[in-house]
């Protein structure tokens, strides 16, 4: 006895083979039912084999699920093919079962004696769909997690039992480790084993229903059972099925569908989809999650219902349809019932086809969906890139790489907390434009290109920089408009290069190395009175008047200003509405950002993140790892100073506080009999005793007019006024008389003590006073009531509270210095836009009262 005969004698394999491959033809000689079973069993065997090998490497945990799938896809040889065959085999099985069910309905191959064949095939389809749904979550990526969470949350629609079912499915209140273990058990034990048991029962029932042809051949004269023919057809059908599954797996590498270059890195382009690791933080929910193709019709159908009625398309209507389909074998016994079944089937299939098309079309035209999907694809690629750059996955999981990556997390943090004020006009997909920006555009911050625009007098006050801020007419804007442009072009270039070099930007590393001499020259200029009058720069300049330029734009500098913009080394008291993102590093609950998030945002603004260059090598990084954000924050904390609180109830004390707040002391001294305030760096007249007779007499004294007390350190040191006082005025005094000159001084001093109702003009002096202004040629440059005019300030009401208030509000107005203003900011230049003003009208009035001579 041969081995084959011995094996047949023991297990009867020949009879099993004949039973499964032979006969089974219907009354018209159609022998296709064994072919369908063969394809189904072939796909199930393929799923079992690939699933087993996937199982040997898969770890169902919220911290290891994605990581183990990544290992299969990218590290195991042909792991991408293994995943692809398993994933696409499941999709083909669903499609094939659905197609054969439709064929049975239209050919009336579901009536007696085939009712149970039809019902078990329906169950096979249901289990195949269940396996797809549970398997969708197991890869634990963005789409699988978000789509499954949406589906499972529909359980909450069920009255009374919805909450309990949801917690049972999820393993608690939230998705996590227990959810994965439950879904893995469902996928393998319930749907995996269950579909095999159903398939065996289905095969037995199919064989039983078809045995009538074999037992009563006289009733089916057209049938010609041939045990060989079905075997050949079954083999061909299984081969075709394998080819179809393989083509789906490798579709990105097929001509016309993808690129042949995909074969160079098949794990990145072929196999089954794998997005970025799932993030259970609701703030990071993946907005482009969609069900698989087999549920797209139901998804599109559910979208036409409002939220409170979602129970209808999700549970009620599908349940009714399922009942109709289950009843088809019974109704189909009659011809009318069969026609009814066909009509119902056409409606169901047509509806699913329409809503599937509508769903895909909606997504195709939805810019937000396309943007979210593109972002998800970029995050998936970035995760793989980071794993390669970092040399593996950290113990905390791959999600940590993504959430600590400035390239990915930076834009998200920026959009959440910065976009309400700051635009980011970078290239797509990083471009972010807010509805009402009120602060500078930070794309390219601290680069030479950004600083060129900042130091451009035509751009500094635009929306891109300070145009929508409180500094729109402030000291910096006035400096750029009125002083910086007077520097030689080569000095302007040097300042920009040196300031940008402080940031040590990765994108400018080569150009900074090249321009060492230019940068050194720029640092000398910055450290001089050109910039250090207001800004601290290493050992030069004051602290607390304007942002410290030491390390400007560097990682440490950005961490500091983001954490605490009102720090004395940044904007101090003059911070313009920017929130403090780290109020207390020791109490995280009080902070908007964690130290890590602040450092991520800083690196994003600098464009500093690990990345491969075009030649595949990692981009060069500075020597040494950057210090931790907590260490940097500690350094800034050590340099912190308490800011003086604004006094209340004492207008004199409040005025002195406003004097410092408005940065008057940067340029102006305030010499007083007691408690005077010296200038940080004298660049404008001393305003102690301003507009008093003594002060005016000193201004018109040729020995004092060009001293530091008056115009000596200003742009007017060699101007018309100084020349007039040192020249023509002396001759006029000699011709007209000293007594008349004293009367002129008295008249000007008297103006400072005037007061008049708002909206009216001050009382005009007598004609003799007006003649004095004309006799001493003051009217040649200055307007004084009804006489004079020219390029000098209007002296009507000179030195009075109202005159000072108007001058402080806008020294560049037509009334004062419209063309020759020497860097003085306009403190209330935008009465219709209060948020852009440095001081309120009430604050200006307090200062004016403080400066005006006492009556």
Detailed description of the structure:
There is one protein chain. This protein is mainly alpha-helical and 855 residues long. The chain has three domains: 33-289, Cytochrome Bc1 Complex, Chain C (Up-down Bundle); 402-614 and 624-638, no CATH class; 651-851, no CATH class. Helices cover 52% and strands 0% of the residues. It has 35 helices and two strands. A two-stranded antiparallel sheet has the order 1-2. Helix 18 crosses helix 26. The protein is elongated and about 145 Å long. Mean pLDDT is 90; it is low at 22-30.
Give a short overview.
The chain is 52% helix and 0% strand. The chain contains 35 helices and two strands. The chain has helices spanning 3-11, 13-21, 33-55, 65-75, 79-106, 115-138, 142-153, 162-170, 177-215, 229-249, 266-269, 296-302, 311-326, 328-331, 335-365, 367-390, 398-403, 406-417, 448-454, 475-482, 489-501, 509-514, 516-527, 529-532, 555-563, 595-606, 629-638, 651-661, 693-699, 720-726, 728-736, 738-751, 767-775, 801-809, 841-851; strands spanning 783-784, 787-788.
Distance between the termini: 134 Å
The number of helical runs is 35
Please tell me the CATH architecture of the largest domain by its name: Up-down Bundle
Widest sheet, order of strands: 1-2
As for the CATH topology of the largest domain, it is Cytochrome Bc1 Complex, Chain C
The CATH superfamily label of the largest domain reads Cytochrome Bc1 Complex, Chain C
The largest β sheet comes out as: 2 strands, antiparallel
- Per DSSP E runs of 2 or more residues, the count of β-strands stands at 2
Structural class based on helices, strands and sheet pairing? mainly alpha
Unreliably modeled segments = 22-30
Rg estimate, integer Å: 41 Å
Helix content: 40-55%
Shape: elongated
Please tell me the total number of domains: 3
Q: Kindly provide the name of the CATH class of the largest domain.
A: Mainly Alpha
Strand content: under 5%
- Summed over residues and divided by their number, the pLDDT gives a mean of 90
């Amino acid at each position: 006895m041969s081995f084959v005969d011995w094996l047949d004698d023991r297990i009867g394999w020949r009879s099993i083979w004949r039973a499964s491959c032979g006969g089974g033809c219907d009354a018209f000689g159609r022998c296709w039912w064994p072919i369908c079973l063969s394809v189904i069993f072939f796909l199930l065997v393929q799923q079992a084999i690939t699933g087993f090998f996937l199982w040997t490497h898969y770890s169902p945990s919220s911290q290891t699920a994605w990581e183990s799938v990544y290992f299969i896809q990218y590290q195991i040889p042909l792991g991408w093919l293994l995943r692809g065959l398993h994933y696409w085999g499941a999709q083909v099985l669903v499609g094939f079962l659905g197609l054969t069910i439709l064929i049975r309905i239209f050919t009336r191959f579901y009536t007696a004696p085939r009712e149970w064949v039809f019902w078990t095939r329906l169950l096979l389809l249901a289990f195949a769909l269940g396996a797809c749904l549970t398997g969708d979550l197991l890869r634990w990526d963005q789409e699988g997690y978000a789509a499954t969470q949406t589906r499972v949350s529909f359980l909450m629609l069920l009255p009374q039992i919805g909450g309990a079912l949801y917690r049972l499915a999820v393993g608690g209140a939230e998705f996590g480790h227990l959810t994965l273990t439950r879904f893995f058990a469902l996928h393998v034990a319930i749907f995996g084993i269950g579909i095999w048991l159903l398939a065996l029962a289905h095969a037995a029932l199919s064989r039983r229903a078809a045995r009538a042809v074999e037992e009563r051949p006289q009733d089916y004269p057209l049938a010609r059972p041939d045990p060989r023919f079905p075997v050949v057809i079954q083999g061909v059908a299984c081969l075709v099925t394998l080819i179809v599954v393989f083509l789906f797996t490798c579709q990105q590498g097929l001509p016309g569908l993808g690129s042949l270059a995909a074969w160079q890195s098949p794990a990145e382009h072929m196999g089954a989809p794998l997005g970025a690791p799932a993030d259970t933080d609701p703030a990071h929910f993946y907005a482009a999650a969609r069900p698989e193709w087999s549920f797209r019709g139901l998804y599109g159908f559910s979208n036409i219902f409002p939220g409170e009625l979602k129970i209808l398309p999700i549970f009620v209507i599908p349940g009714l349809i399922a009942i109709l389909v289950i009843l088809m074998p019974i109704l189909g016994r009659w011809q009318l019932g069969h026609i009814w079944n066909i009509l119902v089937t056409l409606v169901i299939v047509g509806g699913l086809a329409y809503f599937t098309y509508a769903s895909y079309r909606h997504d195709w035209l939805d810019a937000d969906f396309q943007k979210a999907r593109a972002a998800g694809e970029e995050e998936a690629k970035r995760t793989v890139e980071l794993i390669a750059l970092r040399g593996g996955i950290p113990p905390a999981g791959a999600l940590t790489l993504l959430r600590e990556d400035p390239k990915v997390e930076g834009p998200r943090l920026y959009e959440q907390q910065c976009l309400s004020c700051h635009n980011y006009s970078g290239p797509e997909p990083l471009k972010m434009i807010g509805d009402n920006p009120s602060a500078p555009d930070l794309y390219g911050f601290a680069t030479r290109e950004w600083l060129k625009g900042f130091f451009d007098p035509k751009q500094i006050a635009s929306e891109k920089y300070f145009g929508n801020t409180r500094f729109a007419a402030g000291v910096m804007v006035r400096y750029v408009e009125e002083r910086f442009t007077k520097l030689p072009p080569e000095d302007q270039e040097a300042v920009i290069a040196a300031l940008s070099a402080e940031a040590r930007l990765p994108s400018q590393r080569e150009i900074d190395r090249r321009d060492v001499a230019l940068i050194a020259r720029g640092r000398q200029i910055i450290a001089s009175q050109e910039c250090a009058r207001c800004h601290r720069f290493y050992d030069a300049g004051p602290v607390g008047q304007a942002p410290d330029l030491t390390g400007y734009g560097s990682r440490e500098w950005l961490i500091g200003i983001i954490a605490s913009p009102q720090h004395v080394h940044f904007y101090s008291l003059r911070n313009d509405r920017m929130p403090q993102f780290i109020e207390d590093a020791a109490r995280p609950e009080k902070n908007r950002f964690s130290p890590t998030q602040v450092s991520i945002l800083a690196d994003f603004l600098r464009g500093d993140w690990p990345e491969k260059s075009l030649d595949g090598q990692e981009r060069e990084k500075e020597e040494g790892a950057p210090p931790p954000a907590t260490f940097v924050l500690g350094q800034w904390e050590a340099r912190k100073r308490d800011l003086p609180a604004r006094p209340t109830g004492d207008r004199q004390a409040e005025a002195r506080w406003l004097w410092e707040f408005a940065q008057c002391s940067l340029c102006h001294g305030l010499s007083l009999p007691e408690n005077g305030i010296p200038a940080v760096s004298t660049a404008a007249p001393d305003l102690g005793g301003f507009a008093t007779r003594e002060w005016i007499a000193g201004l018109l004294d040729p020995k004092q007019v060009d001293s530091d007390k008056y115009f000596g350190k200003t742009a007017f040191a060699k101007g018309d006024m100084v020349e007039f006082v040192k020249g023509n005025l002396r001759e006029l005094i000699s011709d007209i008389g000293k007594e008349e000159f004293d009367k002129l001084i008295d008249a000007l001093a008297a103006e400072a003590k005037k007061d008049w109702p708002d909206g009216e003009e001050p009382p005009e002096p007598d004609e003799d006073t007006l003649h004095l202004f004309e006799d001493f040629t003051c009217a040649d440059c200055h307007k004084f009531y009804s006489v004079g005019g020219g390029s000098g300030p209007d002296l009507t009401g000179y030195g009075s509270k109202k005159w000072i208030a108007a001058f402080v509000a806008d020294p560049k107005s037509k009334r004062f210095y419209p063309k020759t203003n020497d860097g003085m900011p306009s403190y209330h230049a935008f009465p219709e836009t209060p948020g852009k003003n440095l001081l309120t009208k009430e604050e200006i009035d307090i200062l004016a009262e403080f400066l005006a001579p006492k009556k």
